[in-house]
Amino acid sequence: MSRRDQMRPRPRSRNVIELIEFTRHVADEVISGKYPFIDFDAEARWHQRIYRDASVDVWLISWLPTQGTQLHDHGGSAGSFTVVSGELAEAEYVRTGAHTGELQELTRPAGCTVGFDARYVHDVRNMSLAPAVSVHAYSSPLTSMTYYDLVDGALERVATLATDDPEPAFDVRAAS
To answer: CATH code for 13-175?
Structure first.
C-alpha cells in the first residue's frame, strides 16, 4: 500500500437509519416507475444492482412464489430491505432474550422496511401466491456471505462465499 493510499480517507459506512431511508426512497422511485425493467425469472430470483459507491450498494430483487434464500449473513455489512410489492416471509435468527437460538418467523408486507446490523442472520422467502419485489442496501458493499444451518439452537456454518452479489450463483445445499 502506498503512502498516498494510507492517507486517503476510508469511505464512511452508512448506519442502519440511513440504509432504511435509502431503501424507502428507492422503493418510492420503483413505485413511481423509475425502474421499469424489473423482471421475474422462474429459475432463480431476478436481481439488478441499481447503485454502488464506496460506502453502499443497492439492489432490486424480484421473488416469484416459493423462491427464497437460505439462512445467511451479509459478511459484516449492515443493511436494509424494503418490500415494494407483494409479501415476503422472513426467518430471523434470535440472538438474545427468551427465544435465543430460534428462528422468528415474520411476515413483511408491501411497504415494510427492515434494517439490520452487521451480525444479522436470516432467510427471506416468498410464501404468498403473488410475485414480490424488494429493494436491498448494504453498507459497506457486500464482499462475502456466510450460509448456516440451525442445529440445536446454534448457527452452524455451512459455507462462506466471497461475493459482491446478494444472489450468488451458488447452491449452499450442494456445499454441505
So the answer is: 2.60.120.10
